[in-house]
């Protein structure tokens, strides 16, 4: 005998709300403007070092500057084809300053790169992508993370 479960009314609304929340929490690369990388640098305000993606809240100060040598930083070899020199050369400061949530890769990739977990108060930098025209929340997906002068490529695993 097969049982069928029918969800109606409030149960259906709750199920749809949970599905919508899950979809919003996992942004695909297509949601971000990959033609306009931004450079975010500042003090760590919060860290969530967990799956499905680690997140860091970075406070970007009003006087943040773009490092003169950013475009010349050596990029690590990755299993995914990323033109690191082009991405770094195109990076610009964001139009908005303040608390940016930056989404990193899944923990398996972070562990493969041996990325050290930053602590509140540390300074980190990232080259990342945000929504077109920086509309919406101050949220970005990281291409390169810079901690302690070390640049980590997070699109894929180390080559």
Features:
single chain, 159 residues, alpha+beta, OB fold (Dihydrolipoamide Acetyltransferase, E2P), 3 helices, 6 strands, 19% helix, globular
Give an overview in words.
- With 159 residues, this protein is an alpha+beta fold.
- The chain has a single domain, classed as Beta Barrel (OB fold (Dihydrolipoamide Acetyltransferase, E2P)), CATH 2.40.50.
- 19% of the residues lie in helices and 27% in strands.
- It has three helices and six strands, in the order H-E-E-H-E-H-E-E-E.
- Strands 1-2-3-5-4 form a five-stranded mixed beta barrel.
- A hairpin with a 6-residue loop joins strand 1 and strand 2.
- The longest helix is centred in the first third of the chain and has 17 residues.
- It starts with 8 loop residues before the first helix and ends in a 6-residue tail after the last strand.
Topology:
Blueprint: H1 9-25, E1 38-48, E2 55-60, H2 84-90, E3 98-103, H3 107-113, E4 123-129, E5 139-147, E6 150-153
Parallel strand pairs: 3-5
Antiparallel strand pairs: 1-2, 1-4, 2-3, 4-5, 5-6
Strand fraction band?
A: 25-35%
CATH superfamily: Nucleic acid-binding proteins
Number of domains: 1
Q: Find the count of extended strands (DSSP E, 2+ residues).
A: 6
- Broad shape: globular
Which ranges are low-confidence, i.e. pLDDT below 50, for 5 or more consecutive residues? 10-26
Largest sheet: 5 strands, mixed, barrel
Provide the succession of SSEs.
Answer: HEEHEHEEE
Count the DSSP helices: 3
The first-level CATH class name: Mainly Beta
Known CATH architecture: Beta Barrel
Which structural category do the helix and sheet elements fall into?
alpha+beta
Assembly state (oligomeric) = single chain
**Nearest-angstrom radius of gyration?**
18 Å
């Amino acid at each position: 005998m097969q049982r069928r479960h029918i969800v109606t009314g409030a149960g259906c609304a709750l199920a749809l709300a949970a599905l919508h929340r899950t979809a919003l929490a996992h942004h695909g690369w297509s949601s971000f403007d990959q033609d306009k990388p931004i450079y975010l640098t500042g003090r760590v305000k919060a860290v969530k070092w967990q799956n499905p993606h680690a997140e860091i809240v970075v406070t970007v100060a009003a006087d943040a500057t773009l490092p003169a040598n950013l475009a010349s930083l050596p990029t690590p070899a990755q299993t995914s084809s990323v033109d690191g020199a082009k991405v770094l050369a195109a990076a610009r400061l964001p139009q908005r300053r303040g608390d940016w949530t930056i989404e990193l890769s899944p923990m398996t990739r972070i562990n493969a790169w041996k990325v050290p977990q930053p602590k509140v108060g540390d300074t980190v930098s990232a080259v990342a992508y945000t929504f077109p025209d920086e509309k919406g929340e101050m949220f970005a997906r990281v291409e390169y993370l810079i901690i302690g002068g070390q640049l980590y490529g997070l699109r894929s695993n180390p080559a």
